[in-house]
């Protein structure tokens, strides 16, 4: 058991290779943490968090909203991107400059120069919420990476392979950590184990995950 969670010890500022094309940048977002959280508050005021339905009719345990040109949505019609919030009919809130700049910088640090996200999916995890293993494959061009920023409570990130049955590695993601994956690992299965109870000085009993994509 100790060996299984050896990589989940308390992290320090660092760069860690997770797989070919995948990088974990520890604490990379801390310099702008307050600006990021302020952006989340402003976005969710205009486009409130909601627990979307899967095509099978199940309610997701993670609450979501979006910003940018496109927003990721799911309902009985399927998974997709669309430019308007289905609940309001209005365009999703603009992506804050600090969001875009950090995502582009993190992508460049991971070796993906020129990444320009047009969508940011914001997930809100409360204790008991989880994200099952899945691939991000609703985007039109898999040449672009995924950039994922963690804020608030720590969570256990699972990163597998191209098949759902491939072995997964577990990494503790803490406030300010950024994961970037693309290239050979762009379609790797990944997920988040059930969030544990806790209290973070910046977010209370919540974890936010900002996931940047090039949708179109």
Which key terms come to mind for this protein?
Jelly Rolls; seven-stranded antiparallel beta sheet; 216 residues; four-stranded antiparallel beta sheet; 31% strand; disordered N terminus; alpha+beta
CATH topology, what is it called? Jelly Rolls
Low-pLDDT ranges: 1-10
Largest sheet: 7 strands, antiparallel
Counted by DSSP, the helix tally is 2
Roughly what percent helix? 10-25%
CATH architectural group: Sandwich
User: What's the SSE pattern?
Assistant: EEHEEEHEEEEEEEE
The counted number of beta strands is: 13
Alpha-carbon distance between the two ends? 43 Å
CATH superfamily assignment?
Alpha-ketoglutarate-dependent dioxygenase AlkB-like
CATH C-level: Mainly Beta
Cα gyration radius (Å): 16 Å
The number of domains is: 1
Strand order of the largest sheet: 1-2-11-8-13-6-3
In round numbers, the mean pLDDT is: 94
Task: Please characterize this protein's 3D structure.
- By secondary structure, this protein is an alpha+beta fold.
- It has one domain (15-205): Jelly Rolls.
- 12% of the residues lie in helices and 31% in strands.
- The chain has two helices and 13 strands; from the N terminus they run E-E-H-E-E-E-H-E-E-E-E-E-E-E-E.
- Strands 1-2-11-8-13-6-3 form a seven-stranded antiparallel β-sheet, with helices on one face.
- The longest helix is centred in the first third of the chain and has 14 residues, at 33-46.
- The N and C termini lie far apart (43 Å).
């Amino acid at each position: 058991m100790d060996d299984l969670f050896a990589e989940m010890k308390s992290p320090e500022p660092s760069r860690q290779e997770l797989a070919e094309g995948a990088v974990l940048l520890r604490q990379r977002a801390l310099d702008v943490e307050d600006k990021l959280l302020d952006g989340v508050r402003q976005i969710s005021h205009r486009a409130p968090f909601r627990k979307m339905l899967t095509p099978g009719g199940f309610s997701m345990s993670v609450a979501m909203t979006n910003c940018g040109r496109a927003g990721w949505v799911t309902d009985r019609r399927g998974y997709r991107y669309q430019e308007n919030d289905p609940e309001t009919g209005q365009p999703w809130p603009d992506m804050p400059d600090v969001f875009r700049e950090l995502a582009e910088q993190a992508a460049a640090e991971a070796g993906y120069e020129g990444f320009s996200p047009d969508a940011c999916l914001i997930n809100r995890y409360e204790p008991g919420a989880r994200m099952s293993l899945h691939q991000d494959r609703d985007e039109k061009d898999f040449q672009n990476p995924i950039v994922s920023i963690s804020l608030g409570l720590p969570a256990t990130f699972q990163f597998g392979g191209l098949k759902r049955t491939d072995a997964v590695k577990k990494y503790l993601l803490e406030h300010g950590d950024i994961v970037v994956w693309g290239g050979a690992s762009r379609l790797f299965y990944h997920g988040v184990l059930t969030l544990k109870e806790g209290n973070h000085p910046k977010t209370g009993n919540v974890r936010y995950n900002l996931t940047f994509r090039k949708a179109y």
